[in-house]
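Entry 14: structure prediction run for Segregation and condensation protein B. Input pasted below.
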Amino acid sequence: MTPPDDRVRAIEAVLFAATEPLTLDTIRAHVAGTPNEVRECLDRLAADYAGRGINLVRRGDRWLFQTAADLAHLLRRQREEPRRLSRAGIETLAIIAYHEPVTRAEIEAIRGVVISKGTIDVLMEAGWVRPAGRREAPGRPLTYATTPGFLAHFGLESRRDLPGIDDLRATGLLDPVDLAIEALEVEKTGEGD
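Run finished. Output tokens:
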């Protein structure tokens, strides 16, 4: 078996990383080549994967890797529906990420509202937040911090890679209300000078 050329390898990588079946035109958008050249590469890949645990197959006008039909019985389908975080969950996660280790009372003070009982539980179930010990304060409140799973999920090497205020402003992720409050604070500090 001769090693695949660069175009075949590139097409294999594109298909492997795809989250859904790809059309010939979509594949060509990633890899240079005429439709016939790309089709030849797809045929070569399909032949290379024939008889293996996964196969390259064509479904309609789309290509994808799938488990070999004769091995499908070995796999149990456990499909987890992605859990969408509520706005409170997103805000709580952001506060923990930027202020860790942080207590529930500190999160509530920053958000300005009480956290519902399950918000931190949802973040812990997702593997993004963990208990981080107890604060040396009256009542010894539990603190929370992010996990390596949080960093991996959001593609961060460390917390230092979290976006700063200027990055958030540039992407338009700050609410207009946040920007207005920030402008008022700047005005107030400027008046006292």
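Notes: The chain has a mean pLDDT of 82. Will compare against the previous run tomorrow.
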